[in-house]
Amino acid sequence: MTPRENYVSIARRTGYEYMPVSLNMSPSIRKKYEAYTASHDLELPVGEGTLSDLPADCLSPEEFRKRFYASKDFRPGTAIDGWGVAHEPGSEFAYHMTYMHHPMEDFDSVEEILAYPMPVFREEGLARQKEEAERFHAEGRPVIGQMQCTIWETAWYMRGMENLMCDMMADDPMAAALLDRVTDLAVKRAVSYAKAGADGVFLGDDIGMQHTIMMSDSLYRDWLQPRLKKVIDAAKAVNPDLIVFYHSCGHVTELIPRLIEAGIDVLNPVQPECMDFREIHDRFGDRLSFHGTIGTQSVMPFGTPEEVRKKVFENLSIAGPRGGLFVCPTHMLEPEVPIENVVAYIRACKDYTENR
Description:
three-stranded antiparallel sheet, globular, 46% helix, 13% strand, TIM Barrel, alpha/beta, 15 helices
C-alpha cells in the first residue's frame, strides 16, 4: 500500500500494513525530539499532507480593537484573530493557553450579529488547494483539510460561551443568526477541500467536559447536529468518499450517536481519562473509526516507556487487524512529557505492525 491507501484503509476498516504516527508537540518537546533524533535512528512513517485553508479577507487587528475593544487594556502580546477574538497571554506557566475576549459579548440584537464583520473566504484559493493536493497525491500521501473549531467553538469564541448557551436555551434568534452565519462559512471551506481532492477533512467542536457532555442531548440535537450535518452533507455531495474526522475533547459518549447521524467517520481523540476505548469500540466500532486514545493527561506524561508501549499495543489489538484506529496521543504533548515516552510511542506503532 501507498501511505494514502494505507491511511484510507485504516479509516474504512479494511486492513492496513503499518500504523501512521501522529504527534502534536509543544515547542519544548519539539526541541527535545529534534535533539534526540539528531543522535538516534528514529524513522517516522510518511504522514499526511495538509492543505492550506482558503484565503480570507478580515478586519485588521487594529480595526477590531478600535471597534470592539476600545475600553479594554490588554497585556502585551495579545493577538486578535481574523474572527475578531482577542487572545491574551497568561503567565509563563500557561504556555500556549490564552485568555479569550469575545467581541460579541455585549450584543443584544440580531441586527448586530448580522452586521458583524465575519471573514470573507475567497474561492480563488481553490486553485492553490488543488495544486497542493496533486503534489501530495503524487508522493502517495493522503491529503487532509483542517477546519477544527467548525461551528460551536467558532461561534462561542465570538459571543462568549455563557452568552451563546443562554441564547440557545432561551431560543433567542441571535443564536440562530450567529450559528447560521458560521455554518455557511464552514460549508464553503469544507466544500472547497472536497473539490480540491482532499481524502479527508478534520472538523470539530469541543462538546464534552472531563466527566460529562457539555450540553444536553436535546440542546445539541436542536442547535448543533443539523448544522454539522449541513457541512458534512455539502462536502460529501462533492466527494462521497471524503473521510470526515471530528474532534471533541472530553466525555462525549452520549452524543456519539448524534455525530454518527450527522455523518462523521472518525472520532478524535477518545480521551482515556474521560471514556473507555474498549467500551466505545464495542458500542460504535462497526460504524465509526477512531483517532487518538493514548492519554496526554495520564500515560504520556506520567507513565513509563513500557506503559506507553503497552497501551499502544492494547488499543491496536482492540481495534483488530481491520484497522479503525489511528493510535496517537490525544492532544498536544506538554512540557512534562518525557522524550522517552515520545520515542516509546513511535517505536510501538512500528513494532506492533511488524510483529503482529
